[in-house]
Amino acid sequence: MMGLRLIIGIFLLAGLSVGFRKPELCPKRIPHKEYFDVKKMFGIWYSHYRTRTQGNQTLNCVRSHVRDDVDDGLYIKTYYQFPKNNSIVIQRAKIYGLESSGYFRTRKLVWKYEKLPRKYSEHWVIDTDYKSYRISFNCKNLTSYGRVTGSQQILLLQTRTKYPTRGLIEKLKGIATKAGLSIEHAFKVDHRNCPLRF
User: Fold this and answer.
1) Confidence grade of residue 20 (pLDDT, cut at 50, 70, 90)
2) Judging by beta carbons within 10 Å of its beta carbon (0-12, 13-18, 19+), is residue 81 exposed, middle or buried?
């Protein structure tokens, strides 16, 4: 009987230690571009390194299009393809709270009949020259039954061209590292055999 109580006690302690483990939340501040002109960001950006999401899957053909729409205002339209079945996903996220810096919030735009929670993501443009490269980081805290369980963090190294030089990619990696953002868990995006149009 004593042995059984000891085993139960060990399991309870283990459960408590896991239950009170502090989840990894979105950072409150990330170094980002202080003077930012969103109009210069308009157009297509090709992602070349991206952190894993969607169940730790890699994605192909990742690109985003920053646009201004009469009805929806400023938004980012993102395209990507799952390599397992070549299915294509298109998402739109409206931009909120944009001022003069490279920090703003985004929220996915959904159809009226879709009963999806419209959660905000925080978005930082770490650095860009508008003409050739952009490094961005976005994060969203995840909740379950009102409790924060962790966060979804996405780092993107993007360029205007589908096939940039190796020197430019190495430059982007250096900027991300200097900003304290690791690309250790980022995957290289494959842009071969992508549809001409999504």
Assistant:
1) very low
2) buried
Q: Return the closest-CA partner of residue 64 out of 83, 36, 38, 42.
A: 42
Ramachandran class of 187: left when φ > 0, alpha when ψ lies in -120 to 50, beta otherwise: beta
| Cβ contact 63:46 at 8 Å | yes
**Within 13 A of 156's CA, how many CA atoms are on the CB side?**
23
Span 93-143, pLDDT tens digits: 889 888 888 888 888 765 444 445 557 788 899 999 999 999 999 888 888
Cα angle 156, 158, 163 (rounded to 5 degrees) comes to 135
In 3D space, the residue among 114, 120, 112 whose CA is nearest the CA of residue 94 turns out to be 120
Architecture of domain 27-188: Beta Barrel (2.40)
Q: Per-residue DSSP letters for 77-91?
A: EEEEE-TTT--EEEE
Cα distance between residue 43 and residue 77, in whole Å: 10
- As given in the structure block, the two tokens for residue 55 are 């169940």
Domain ranges of the chain: 27-188
